[in-house]
Amino acid sequence: MAERRSTQAPHSARAELTDALYDFFQAARRARGRAAGDMAGGLSLAQYHVLEPLGKGPRTNRELAELAGISAPTATRIVDGLLDRGWVSRVADPTDRRAVVISLTETGRGALTKKQREYVARRRQIADALDPHEQEVAAGLLRRLAAVIEEL
Amino acid sequence: MAERRSTQAPHSARAELTDALYDFFQAARRARGRAAGDMAGGLSLAQYHVLEPLGKGPRTNRELAELAGISAPTATRIVDGLLDRGWVSRVADPTDRRAVVISLTETGRGALTKKQREYVARRRQIADALDPHEQEVAAGLLRRLAAVIEEL
DNA sequence: TATTGTTATACTCTATAACTATA
DNA sequence: TATAGTTATAGAGTATAACAATA
């Protein structure tokens, strides 16, 4: 393999990784598309991204918007939907009456936990394609790639 | 490092990779979000996914829908938008007058090529975070992970 | 005045159902 | 009848601008 690249570089490691990243992102996009409207679990991706931070405790609307990377009105709308399903509560903050405190209900915690377990199971399935040594290498590489992507 | 796992497995390679996959997908999601409404380049992600197959030649509406993983009416609507911008043409197929043939215009090919180059440049930036040997390893791992994700 | 949240409005992407034209 | 495409309709997710309440 390496000898083919000793005199020329028609397929440099850099170019191969660039291509592999394309394939990987494509695969992730398609998987995401398959899961995006996943109302089977009763929880859309956008709702999940708002619900997830609530797993660690109550948050204001502004905080949720920031954590989910969406605008405040969008957060309001998504929380409206979660309220309709009884997954969250929204009450005025007694210490700052401009703000609202959004919290998970018991039902909501159940739905969130169920979804989180599904996602963990899916990631484990992916991880299981590699042997233990490869898993260790892959974890390190993915962490570094994630850091670079964040900085982009 | 390995000795810590010799007697117990609180952080097995599998669990570490599962976590790393979470971080990586999160980073990719945020990057995607930043680019999704990217009308700066004048080309939304959905439009790009329809335009891309046209780079290899004309396609019917049904083919485009299938390749982009969307319904036929959605493809029609997106093609409507691309027509408005003068990036594609849509003419009746002479051999089967139920069908339409959608093709890139010169302007459209320019926009597509420009976007493709942007994406390649971004993936190269990511690849450049690793040294050549790591790039080779990473390419192989990502290809295998992509295959698993597709099968999920 | 500045901040927090909501309402009003609008646009994109998405789908299903109904319809037209052609095979 | 079956297929290709479009139109009609609906709903989620997204944003910005305007507004109300509170700090």
Write the layout of secondary structure elements.
The structure is a homodimer of 152-residue chains.
Chain A: H1 4-7, H2 13-36, H3 45-54, E1 59-60, H4 61-68, H5 72-84, E2 88-92, E3 100-104, H6 106-127, H7 132-151
Antiparallel strand pairs in A: 1-3, 2-3
Chain A binds a DNA duplex (23 and 23 nucleotides) through residues 36-37, 44, 46, 60-62, 70-78, 81, 93, 96-100.
Describe this structure in words.
Chain A is mainly alpha-helical. Chain A has helices at residues 4-7, 13-36, 45-54, 61-68, 72-84, 106-127, 132-151; strands at residues 59-60, 88-92, 100-104. In chain A, helix 4 crosses helix 5. Chain A binds a DNA duplex (23 and 23 nucleotides) through helix 5.
Low-confidence stretches of chain A: 1-8
The name of the CATH superfamily of the largest domain in chain A reads Winged helix-like DNA-binding domain superfamily/Winged helix DNA-binding domain
Please count the beta strands of chain A (DSSP E, at least 2 residues each): 3
As for the number of domains of chain A, it is: 2
Largest interface: A-B, 53 and 53 residues
Strand order of the largest sheet of chain A: 1-3-2
Total number of helices of chain A: 7
What spatial form of chain A do the alpha-carbon principal axes imply? elongated
Strand content bin of chain A = 5-15%
Biggest beta-sheet profile of chain A: 3 strands, antiparallel
State the end-to-end distance of chain A. Answer: 32 Å
Estimate the helix proportion of chain A, in percent.
55-70%
